[in-house]
Amino acid sequence: MTALKKNPASVRPNGIAKFAPESPASSGSRFNLDKVRAFVAELEVPFSPSVVEWRVVNVSEDRSRGQVIPYADQRAYTDRLNELFTPAGWTRKYTVHTSATFERSRDNKVAAKVFVTCDLTIHGIGSHSATGEEWTDNENAGTSAEAQAFKRACSCFGLGRYLYNLSGVWVDLNEHGHPAETPHLGGWATPEGWRKGLRPLPHGEFETAKPAAAAKKKKNSRPEEQSISPEDRRLIQQIEAMAELLGKAMYRGLLKTIARVWRPSEIHDRAVLEKVSAAMQSAAQGLRRLEAAQERIGPEATKALMNSLHIRSVAQVDNLETLQQLVQALEENVDEASA
To answer: Which residue has better confidence, 234 or 106?
Structure first.
């Protein structure tokens, strides 16, 4: 089998070096461990900042500032796979499912969810699968869920995984709600920095659009401007105290979907802190109602209802919509039993 060849001076626009193409599929056999590690190392290399885009995921109350997170289009992922393995060296297969319609907690609309599972196979290395989801009232629900599933499957091989280390950053928004300036990716988050051995800091920090000016502003700011306000600290402690009560899945799920962070201390906007706190209080109330309903109908009926909703266990519920759906189903069963 032809050895993996790389020309260090030849790097493609999306951050991957050119390799002499012998697809794993061409030989019909698996690569040895050293070659697999070499391929995975190249998959882990960040994309070129030129193909990275930014999405606003939260806005302040006055809508003057927004929290943005980086992402890359599906094409950046397929380009990387094609560069490394050729189009014949990998395949993907999608499976689509939809849930029953139910009332969403955030806006009380009745909608269903589409779930897309992507099975990604790199011939000669292995396969991984992942699922994406989207509400069906989004006219691009299928496309969105498909892209999410594909990217998540890619991250299992290391491709695009570095983006998860970049927590959201707050920037000024223009009159159209778009970032007035986008953060600047440098250092470890670039192909050049990664190849030099640079790696992310513990909290995934990255530079803002004008790092020199930002550093100067921080240096000249007063100590109280750099510290967390007492009210923000109280909210952070309040959220942290919910971890044990809600369980890991729900606690992490709410932090991720609402604030795009792993820890409440990474949230620097009070409006978002308040939103997360309110969501966790709602989740705690829902879990109390769930426990009361379970006691009324018993474990067998509870298990049957959960199976009908495709919920394996309460510990795996990580969002308010699913929790509300489960609570409503159990409480309806209690009402029917009492009638």
So the answer is: 234
DSSP category for residue 328? H
pLDDT of residue 12: 54
Is there a single domain that holds both residue 180 and residue 321? no
Whether residue 128 is predicted with pLDDT greater than 90 in this model: the reply is: yes
Length of the chain: 339
Q: Tell me the percentage of the chain whose pLDDT exceeds 90.
A: 40
Query: How far apart are the C-alpha atoms of 339 and 337, rounded to whole Å?
Result: 6
pTM of the model as a whole: 0.57
pLDDT of residue 140: 92
Same domain for 290 and 212?
no
- Name the DSSP class of 63: S
Residues 6+ apart with CB under 8 A from 105: 282, 320, 321, 324
Average confidence score pLDDT of the chain: 82
Per-position DSSP letters for 66-119, written without gaps between them = EEEEEEE-HHHHHHHHHHHH-GGGEEEEEEEEEPPPEE-TTT--EE-EEEEEEE
Three-state secondary structure string covering 2-55: CCCCEEEEEECCCCCEEECCCCHHHHCCCCCHHHHHHHHHHHCCCCCHHHEEEE
- Domain stop point among 220, 236, 258: 220
Give the residue from 176, 202, 220 where a domain finishes.
220
Domain count, the chain: 2
Q: Do residues 233 and 196 share a domain?
A: no
Same domain, residue pair 11 and 129: yes
Range of the domain at 99: 1-220
Tell me if 106 sits within 8 A of 132, measured CB to CB: no
pLDDT of residue 337: 61
